[in-house]
Amino acid sequence: MRRRAFLELTAGAGLVAAAGLAFAPSIIGRAIAAPTGGQPLPLPPVLDLDQGAGATLETRAGSHAFYEGASAATTLGYGQNYLGPILRARRGGTARVSLANRLDAPVATHWHGLHIPGSMDGGPQMAVAPGAGLTRELEIDQPAGTYWYHSHTHGLTAEQVYQGLAGFFLIEDPEAPDPGLPDELGVDDLPLAVQDRNFSPEGHLRYSSGGMMMMNGMKGDAILVNGALRPVASVPGGLVRLRLLNGSNARIYHFFFEDGRGFHQVASDGGLLQAPVAMERLTLAPGERAEIVVDFSTGGTRLLSADDNNAMMGMMGGMMSRIMGGGSSPDNIRGADGFEIMSFEVDPARRAARTSLPATLPGAPNGEMAEPVARRRISLEMMHGMRGGGGMMGGMMGGRGGDSPGPFSINGKPYDMGRIDVAAKLGTTELWEVVTDGMAHPFHVHGTSFKVLNVDGRAMDFATTGLKDVVLVRERAEILVPFNRPADRQTPFMFHCHILEHEDNGMMGQMTVS
Ligand code: C2O
Ligand code: CU
Ligand code: CU
User: Fold this and answer.
1) CA 430/CA 445 separation, integer angstroms
2) What pLDDT score was predicted for residue 489?
């Protein structure tokens, strides 16, 4: 049986200061058995929102044993124990969804990637109180694609998503030409929500948001796909579409297949690419989606990921976070090559519906946007608390929570629900320059999809990037952001880092569009 060394952070014990930073490496030597994965890939139930009365989503507590031998963990879910159903809506239709909150904490539910008004968007202003409900009619008018929904509760987003408040939101376009891709949901079209988690030896979800966990974001050492530990998918021996969602709080994945097989990306955050793009490796930051098509005619394989080294202050942060568990690597690392996400087995009884990939993808968005009317600089900062006097130490040791914004800020200001940071004009486009400080941040804007012009000095080609709503910025990026949905002061759009610990701790701003 494989065993691994196990480090645990105990807050407040054995404070050590190094290089001006405080951290608490209380190392408890314990060895636990690495839990084994290999259950069949779960597919959440599919709910069509534009039929009849739509769907009711109940946010509730659940209990779930995540792997063989685990005792039932306390979880959160939308109408189920962990995660939520796959919601499906059609362009041109109205998606009806009611939210009922059965938790004793407020829950705001945001429709990530949807082009809907601020009043429908589900930002922190629209939290549903315990025991209360809310009905939404979302008018869907945007490209078909893989979107998602998740908790966006003020100060609680990271923890509620970690416990399970997230799900897929798929948009179809009945008017668009058939792109000729695998599209039988659950058979050759598989939505895959990839999340990393930490488990206690009993199998309970463990979340810790203090110290380096907050600075680098919470990274777990166990990989779940649709809530199952490193599952196995049974697929037909032909082309299969994988709708990959990075639903993790902070981990960046660099996906590749164990046998080195190439694959094609066919869609990004905001819908199809104009033509399939051949690749061998795909990076996906928190909040990002990519649809890829993989050929299984030569048999199954494993999906792996290379390690995520994104940490504050480069090597120093990386090293410290490793000591403290903040940058812990998944426990199933094989050599230096990567760790397992899940595996695929070919079922010879299943006939593949698609055996060849189309050369182009008709119906893909063309990325045409108006000339920008304004240029704006958005600076994502980790050191705000240092200048503020409390020091980064104060921020690190204090952890996140409620109304005290953490040490993070945008343009010098930590998130404030009562302040509007950007007032954009409805129907216009702006050029945003996003710059970072300390580490790479996945930058996200609500209520729109944008075009990435360049990232870290490299010009980006729309043909290979497509429409985006999250972009991973190591140093600097320029994006063209169109504003086509209104948002007032009461229900503004958010823009923020999608490392959820950064968002909860102040790296978020608010925007009106009118
Ligand atoms: Cu996916 Cu404001 O978030
Ligand atoms: Cu969003
Ligand atoms: Cu960040």
Assistant:
1) 12
2) 98
Closest by alpha carbon to 310, among 230, 382, 401?
Answer: 382
Closest CA to ligand 1's atom 1: 112
Which has the closest alpha carbon to 300: 344, 351, 256?
A: 344
What is the distance of C-alpha 327 from the center of its chain?
A: 17
DSSP state of 394: H
Give the length of the chain.
Answer: 514
Quick one: tokens of 192? 């895959």
| Calpha distance 499→161 (Å, rounded) | 11
Helix (H, G, I), strand (E, B) or coil at 385: helix
What's the CA dihedral at 350, 351, 353, 357 to 10 degrees? 100
The rounded distance, in Å, linking the Cα atoms of 407 and 386 is: 8
How far is 496 from 508, CA to CA, in rounded Å? 4
496 CA distance to ligand 2 centroid (A)? Answer: 9
257 Cβ neighbours under 8 A, 6+ residues apart = 263, 294, 301, 302, 303, 304
Give the containing element (helix H, strand E) for 266.
Answer: strand 263-268
CB 493 within 8 A of CB 118: yes
Amino acid at site 372 = P
Distance from CA of residue 51 to its chain's centroid? 28
Q: Which stretch of DSSP H or E encloses residue 502?
A: helix 500-504
Q: From ligand 1's centre to the CA of 114, what distance in Å?
A: 10
> 160-202: per-residue pLDDT in tens?
999 999 999 999 999 999 999 999 999 999 999 999 999 999 9
Distances, alpha carbon 402 to alpha carbons 163, 460, 501, in Å: 17, 38, 13
Distance from residue 123's CA to the centre of ligand 2 (Å): 8
Q: Which residues have any ligand 1 atom within 6 Å of their CB?
A: 110, 112, 150, 152, 287, 444, 446, 494, 496, 498
Q: How far is the CA of 169 from the centre of ligand 1 (A)?
A: 13
| pLDDT tens per residue across span 413-463 | 999 999 999 999 999 999 999 999 889 999 999 999 999 999 999 999 999
Quick: pLDDT tens for 31-72.
345 678 889 999 999 999 988 888 999 999 999 999 989 999
Over 90: is that where the pLDDT of 324 sits? no
Is the Cα dihedral 199, 204, 210, 216 positive or negative? Answer: positive
Q: What one-letter code names the amino acid at 392?
A: M
Closest ligand to 312 CA?
A: 3
CA distance 408 to 386: 10
